[in-house]
Amino acid sequence: PAVKSPLYIIKPTLKQQVFSFFANPTLAYLILSFGALCLWIELSHPGIFFPGILGALCLLISLVSFQLLPIRLGALGMLLLGIILLIIELYVPSYGALGVGGILAFVLGSLYLMDTTIPEFQISTLLIFPVATCFAIVVCILSFILLKTRRLKVTDSYLSLVGLFTEANTDITERTGNVFLNGELWSARTADGTLISKNSKVLVQQVNGLVLTVVLQERKK
Fold first, then answer.
1. DSSP state of 182
2. What is the pLDDT tens value at each position of the chain, 221 positions in all?
3. Angle at which helices 125-159 and 25-44 pack, to 10 degrees?
4. What is the maximum span of the chain, computed from C-alpha positions, in angstroms?
5. Which of 83, 130, 131, 200 fits as disulfide partner to 36, beta carbons 3.0 to 4.6 Å?
6. What is the DSSP annotation of 62-122?
């Protein structure tokens, strides 16, 4: 009679279970997307710390997960390039060009990420496009808030100049003139058409863009 081989049941270790859990292309892609968004939030609003820490952790986990999967390194590089372009958009006024390029690179990298034809290892386009759309919407909303905040800070900074005293750097008329204020050279004008001589003490009355409206400060006798 044939001798039956003994059947051994080998349970996976905790490490193997964790690797098996994260070796899911859909999960790894979602973790990467979420981590990139958290990093973008941290860089656009520095000082929060929690999104930055969470984003860096998610990116590291996703990269470890992708090491266990058959991926195209070029597509992964395109994904990371898209994230980098979105981050650069925060600091370079490209009028949305870098943001659009970043979203396109992110989508193309997602479509060609998996280097296999096995359906179980494919990332569905039903997931890629909604994620990219949500990413774009969030980036647009936060960019608008960031731009509005920066403009508000600049406006507040300029308004704080009203009421300050300085000296005329040149003769000031209703058309031309300069003053040196807070370490910067400003264009200055008079509102009533009077002539203010060079080195006269003036008071900032109004700020119009980058032009100060000043009046002559009478010297006390």
1. T
2. 556 777 778 888 887 788 788 888 889 999 999 998 898 888 877 777 898 999 999 999 988 888 888 889 999 999 999 989 888 887 776 767 888 898 899 999 999 998 888 887 888 888 899 988 888 888 788 777 767 766 655 555 566 778 888 888 889 988 888 898 877 788 899 988 788 888 888 988 888 877 888 988 765 44
3. 10
4. 126
5. 83
6. HHHHHHTS-B-HHHHHHHHHHHHHHHHTTTS--TTHHHHHHHHHHHHHHHT-B----GGGP
